[in-house]
Amino acid sequence: MRPGPARLTRIALELAVVAAIFVGVQAWLARDLLPADERTPAPFFSLSDLDGRPWTTADLAGRPAIVYFFAPWCGVCAASSPQLRWFHRWRGDDVRVLLIGLDWQSIDELRQYAARHELPMPVLAGDPATGAAFRVHGYPTYYVIDSQGRIAGRDMGFTTVAGLWLRTLGL
């Protein structure tokens, strides 16, 4: 038996309310992040990856990047890790994926996180100054940086391969 028009209208209205709530919560969570207006340059950072190699903001120049801030104890970050790994394997030649660990106790904690989640992309040991410069106040937080080093997108929370693809479309 097929639902009648009144039932379909009610379902559509309920879905619209859920979508509006989701969009509102996401906007509220991202309210204090740096603007994604494609005029705001990514803040400067100078950090080392887990092998001791130095990285700076200048290393992002020339191609778009996802700069993903995580904490090794964050469950949502752990749940997002496979999505980041798949995105990196799929789009890694076109879009750099760079993870920056914040709120960690030891470099070994970051190494264990990267190994546990089989992260093939660079993982940097972040510091409070970098987190403050990017206005990270929750995990995970990520920014989409265009090839000119400007912020083209930003968000907080769980992400998917499709979500990352949509955010980098056209860069």
Please provide a written account of the structure.
This protein is an alpha/beta fold. Helix 2 links the parallel strand 3 (65-70) and strand 4. The radius of gyration is 18 Å and the shape is globular. The chain has helices at residues 5-29, 75-91, 107-116, 128-133, 161-168, and strands at residues 46-49, 54-56, 65-70, 96-101, 123-125, 141-145, 151-156. Strands 2-1-5-4-3-6-7 form a seven-stranded mixed β-sheet, covered by helices on one side. The mean pLDDT is 90. It folds into two domains: 1-31; 35-168, Glutaredoxin, CATH 3.40.30. The protein is 39% helix and 19% strand.
* Distance separating the two termini: 47 Å
Beta-strand proportion = 15-25%
The low-confidence parts are: none
Write down how many β-strands occur, each being a DSSP E stretch of 2 or more residues: 7
Structural class: alpha/beta
CATH topology of the largest domain: Glutaredoxin
N to C succession of SSEs: HEEEHEHEHEEH
Mean pLDDT: 90
Q: Rounded to an integer, what's the Rg over CA atoms?
A: 18 Å
Helices and strands in order, then pairings?
Blueprint lengths: L4 H25 L16 E4 L4 E3 L8 E6 L4 H17 L4 E6 L5 H10 L6 E3 L2 H6 L7 E5 L5 E6 L4 H8 L3
Parallel strand pairs: 3-4, 4-5
Antiparallel strand pairs: 1-2, 1-5, 3-6, 6-7
Explain briefly what this protein structure is.
By secondary structure, this protein is of the alpha/beta class. The protein has helices at residues 5-29, 75-91, 107-116, 128-133, 161-168, and strands spanning 46-49, 54-56, 65-70, 96-101, 123-125, 141-145, 151-156. The protein has five helices and seven strands.
